[in-house]
Write a structure and sequence with these properties.
Aldehyde Dehydrogenase, Chain A, domain 1; Aldehyde Dehydrogenase, Chain A, domain 2; six-stranded mixed sheet; binds 2-aminohexanedioic acid; oxidoreductase
Amino acid sequence: MRDDVNGLLEGLGVLAGAPSGVCAGGWLDATGPEIESVDPTTGEALGRVRSASREDYDAVVTRASERFASWRMRPAPRRGEVVRRLGELLRQHKEALGTLVSLEMGKIRSEGLGEVQEMIDICDFAVGLSRQLHGLTLPSERPHHRMMEQWHPLGTVGVVTAFNFPVAVWAWNVAIAAVCGDVCVWKPSPVTPLCSLAVQRLVEQAFAEHEAEGVLCLAVGGADAGAWMADDARLPLVSFTGSIPVGRKVAARVAGRLGRSLLELGGNNAIIVLDDADLDLAVRAITFGAVGTAGQRCTSTRRVFAQRGISGKLTERLMAAYQTVRIGDPLEEETLMGPLATREAVLRYEAALRSAGEEGGEVLCGGKALDRPGFFVEPALVWAPRQQDFSIAWKETFAPILYLFEVGDLDEAIAAQNAVTQGLSSAIFTDSLRSAEKFLSAMGSDCGIANVNIGTSGAEIGGAFGGEKETGGGREAGSDSWKAYMRRQTCTINWGTELPLAQGVKFS
Ligand code: UN1
């Protein structure tokens, strides 16, 4: 697989020199600095992309905003047809694009392919949705009046995505936004610029075939470009996926201009394992949740609260499972865990484990960076003291580190799980209906996602995805998340010959 990396990149059209990372219904000549894409498996350069300068970015937003005037008037089901074509192209290029995700980001190939599948799924969902952007009809208090609610496109949406899902999170946003009648400007992570070029090439094809060029635009850039978006009053909505500290800044800046932001920030996801749990399921779910994507999902499992009667056995089983994790080139079929995405991530992994040791945590297995090229680490299992005394577990470290805590009962587990400031995903393993229902009740998990007998990661696109508290409150993908990309209009229509005023007011 690795022998023909150049063939792969050429096939996706992302190799030659330092291609432009700026596209708005045709590729523009980018004039910003070059961004280097680094292969996390070897530590060597994969390619370069020229990023958007401030002028380039402005040109993209101007073009996109002009495009909005006609796109919003195309009937939603016709807009859906364009997204359907994009979904078809993604099906055709699933292997190549999934492999590129794996190559550039470092997740294993099966997860790279799964990420592209997530794009295909959301395209399908959006196509159906394009005939269901429904409003309500409401009874008016006045005779011969009717009230209704309708949803209109919002405008130009800024979409900022993270390195860990370099293509799927973009798709969640833009497939929905496009059928809603919005135009989008995408700023991908500078860690994965080649993925964004490959995707944009498919966008260009699908949208050109339907005379819809310029609806989905690209401006590759770093933190500067993110800040331009946050401050840009031409963007009524900025969808941001990334860390809590950066999300906090984005939210404040967007709020400062009274724009809307849709935030998908960090998680600190826990799995509760009760004494009556099916251990086979729990061990598999925890291992995938903590080790999958090398712990670099916002939904990755970071904490386990094991009830006293089962904690010993669970720990033993997890230690055994961790020994079987084959670390290596993510493109090799038998690999279960690839490298971290960047060198800095390795340093953060090491720092977190140092803190864990200083605070009384005991590393049960793993815990070292591998002595080989690239950014490889071992998945680490840490037996932790009480959570109150263990500050490192309150933070999200984007790495395969799992903290194991022991708890007495379900109430203690729920309290500990909810004690942190993040609120994305959560899960419980139990065979007790009563315990499961308590966990899902208003006094249970405070997260945006709460699962029973499945892990914290790997959500399907049909549900609304997002979390509470410092995770930012945004909801993307399925259910009624589309409403975030539209503006609601309440209309009252008088079909009578009188003009009665509401609330019985007389004015004559
Ligand atoms: C993310 O990590 O930013 O639920 C998104 C999951 C994936 C999406 C994760 N479907 O793990």
